[in-house]
Amino acid sequence: MQRALVIHPHFKQAAASARTAAARLEEASGLAEAIQLQVALALIVPLAAPKPATLFGKGKVEELREAIAAQEITLAIVDSSLSPVQQRNLEEAWGCKVIDRTALILEIFGARARTAEGKMQVELAALEYQKSRLVRSWTHLERQRGGFGFLGGPGESQIELDRRLIRDRIAKIKRELEAVVRTRELHRRKRRRVPYPIIALVGYTNAGKSTLFNRLTGASVVSADKLFATLDPTLRAIRLPSGGAAILSDTVGFVSNLPPELIAAFRATLEEVLEADILLHVRDASHQDQSAQKEDVEAVLKTLFRSAHLPEHVMEVMNKIDCLPPEARAHLPPGVLGISALTGENVEALLQQLDRDITSRFYVQATLCLDMAGGEALSWLHRNGRVLSESTEDDTLRVSVTISPENLSRFEKQFGIRVAP
Ligand SMILES: Nc1nc2c(ncn2[C@@H]2O[C@H](COP(=O)(O)OP(=O)(O)OP(=O)(O)O)[C@@H](O)[C@H]2O)c(=O)[nH]1
Ligand SMILES: [Mg+2]
To answer: What is the pTM of this model?
Structure first.
């Protein structure tokens, strides 16, 4: 196991933030542990003025070098962004590999990607990141690899070649991704023909989305006490208490300062979120930074929807209430249900809440008159809608149902019965 140092630079000039430096350090350490790094040392380093060459001042760089040597650390993670120059200088000064927050998140995404699409998206993001590094640090790289200049043909430097290779690879992945996205689009359209509302679980990483997904679907989707256990969206159909169905979609968790390269590359995955009829925002009620996490999630949603406002179809739920003392349970935000995905507490109530929301938004109520021979039509209605009442009058059967508009028109076609609006 690689021994890592995690440093959270605390900028004194930075605007007051909802999170404490200690919480940020803890999150960065959690991210490192998510890819099997052993965090040997974790530090907050206050910074008055970032130095262009090494970020930290001379004395601090030296102090950290000693700690790195003493603790036999082979990787240093700086929880902010590093310029290529800073990264190289720190690597030279410390004699170990140095990465910044974006690179760390890319590593995690890379380790977790399971589907072809997920892997391509991560590689694309990594290449974009690398491309910007190459451009900015080209003098250094050119000097370092000067000997290979001939590979690119006369007069072309290695860096030009690297840049071109990266560009070509990016173009190729983008083409492949487009094909994958088209296939996914087809699947989605097929699914649209099955008129089920889609519920997407969104939320901060580690909030318990996958645990809730498993609880609701009875499926065994990866859930682990690791950040980013889920990278690719997973979809399952669930039954609602009223008998209707919905599709539940588990998605990748959000983090604060999600690198912009990643938002762009993951757009295709997050398109599931854009498509959803209900966004169920799963919050960790037991987390000290829950309000800051809520803001982060909402900021990502606004970015995704390219809107200044939060979409209206977001429903919040407070998870992990089993960790709360009784007095804290009474202080949940008004109108927001508290649940425990782990113990199952209140999960039934959540399903009912979703059911009510779906019924009121996606279903219509209709009263149908069937003749007495309409046994087949009646059982069809029982299967595809929710029958509220049945009564017989003379030779007609009056049936009152809630049903999706799509199913209602299927019914009209199949049984040749026009339903008065
Ligand atoms: N005590 C308690 N722990 C929970 C609850 N729900 C989830 N957890 C734990 O929280 C950790 C994270 O759960 P996940 O379901 O993997 O979280 P996630 O939101 O899917 O995380 P990412 O996929 O990384 O975004 C796991 O250790 C779960 O066992 C809950 O209701 N109560
Ligand atoms: Mg998950």
So the answer is: 0.76
